[in-house]
Automatic annotation (TrEMBL):
Keyword terms, alphabetized: Membrane, Transmembrane, Transmembrane helix
Name listed for the protein in its UniProt record: Sulfate/molybdate transporter
Pfam families (UniProt xref): MFS_MOT1 (PF16983)
The keyword Membrane belongs to this UniProt entry's keyword annotation: yes
InterPro entries, A to Z: MOT1/MOT2
UniProt xrefs under PANTHER family: MOLYBDATE TRANSPORTER 2, PTHR31970
The organism of origin for this protein: Shewanella scandinavica
TM ranges: 25-42, 48-65, 95-115, 145-162, 213-237, 258-281, 287-307, 314-336, 348-373
């Protein structure tokens, strides 16, 4: 027998780890499903191409990073495509353009230089702003049925302090689906199931779609991707897995996102990226290794290969209020930092200034304000010591 290990621990610990990885694998559904199902049901994009893209990206990320690095839709692009009814060609063009830009920034070293300008206070400020935005989006989704959404959020929150915390998230989702099926209400997604059967098809953007995508989709998305999906994700990943810090760099995250979008978008994949919020919530629910993204990616591949009316119906059973509770949990995990309590006064000032600017204008403006404040502090400290 292994010293310090009882027979019970030898059995329960691997089971708990597997439950944690499985729970963490699907912890980011609050961000993932509403956008993906919206593209499929409301815009009639090919579900096979979209799920195939997420599946391959997640599996390759699992094998390379060996950690629970999340895969998410690019939120600004997906939301604008859904809201404005844009074409599949524009979505593909925006994904490929983002891929090229990220690869240029990675191989030129520009993303590494930008990350070095980012102090921890600026990073925490950006995470605070994005976390608050996710919580606001989650609250709006929970408003579909407040009692269900708030109840699910409370259960997910207190589960952190319970022995079987890794079971909370799958149990909440399963209970929501059962409730939805039994009540036969239309509070879940309002998606037309028959519209979710678009066939797999290959296409190439037209010249007009390339131009429109660059202006309408890529420019608004770029700042959020650089801050949240690349730099903030790297900062958080290195904090949680310091032994792998050499691999979890902004340059590598820019490379993997760039390659995935450039190579998979022509086959119908959505614009995809990593994300600090996804990492926060996956870690919260127990994901620690490559198993979480491997499970998620394999599930996406199975959905792509077996897509049909039955799977579309099954996914649509997840109530919007439940997805909102997951998104709110992700936002809370991302927004909270000990620096908000024990940071020095100027550090807290930089955090709040960065966050407020991000919320009032955009992530790019918040990043600029944070860097300017930090550079001003360094310059003042340099002259004060002379």
């Amino acid at each position: 027998m292994i010293p310090g290990k009882t027979p019970t621990n030898l059995i329960t610990q691997p089971i708990n780890r597997l439950l944690g990885e499985t729970s963490g694998a699907f912890a980011d559904l609050g961000t993932f499903l509403p956008l993906v199902l919206g593209l499929i049901a409301l815009n009639q994009f090919s579900p096979q191409g979209i799920f195939l893209g997420f599946g391959l990206f997640a599996i390759l990320s699992a094998l390379f990073y060996r950690r629970p690095i999340p895969i998410q839709p690019m939120k600004v692009i997906a939301a604008l495509v859904i809201a404005q009814g844009l074409t599949p060609g524009m979505l593909q063009a925006s994904a490929m353009l983002m891929g090229v830009i990220l690869l240029i920034l990675a191989f030129s070293g520009a993303i590494t230089w930008l990350a070095k300008q980012l102090s921890q206070a600026v990073s925490v400020g950006i995470q605070l702003a994005i976390g608050l935005q996710l919580m606001w989006m989650g609250a709006k989704m929970m408003s579909e049925f407040w009692l269900l959404g708030v109840g699910a959020f409370i259960l997910l929150f207190i589960s952190k302090f319970l022995p079987l915390r890794y079971l909370a998230m799958p149990l909440v989702i399963a209970a929501g689906m059962i409730w939805q099926a039994n009540t036969q209400t239309n509070l879940a997604t309002n998606f037309d199931i028959q519209a979710m059967t678009a066939p797999f098809q290959l296409a190439w953007p037209t010249s007009i779609e390339w131009t429109s995508a660059a202006i309408l989709l890529v420019l608004p998305q770029l700042a959020l991707t650089l801050t949240n999906a690349v730099i903030a994700t790297s900062v958080m990943a290195q904090e949680k897995f310091p032994e792998d810090a050499a691999k979890l760099t902004p340059k590598n995250f820019a490379k993997s996102s760039g390659l995935a979008n450039l190579l998979l978008a022509p086959f119908g994949a959505s614009a995809m990226c990593h994300g600090a919020g996804g990492l926060a919530v996956q870690y919260h629910f127990g994901a620690r290794t490559y198993l979480a993204p491997l499970i998620f990616g394999s599930t996406c591949l199975m959905i792509a290969l077996c897509w049909g009316t039955n799977i579309a119906w099954l996914l649509s059973l997840i109530p919007m209020a439940i997805l909102g509770s997951l998104l709110t949990t992700a936002g809370l995990q991302l927004a909270w930092s000990k620096r908000l309590i024990d940071g020095k006064p100027f550090c807290i000032f930089v955090i709040l200034s960065t966050a407020v600017t991000c919320l009032a204008i955009n992530a790019a403006a918040g990043l600029a304000v944070g860097i300017i404040l930090e550079q001003g502090r360094r310059t003042w400290a340099m002259f004060a010591t002379r």
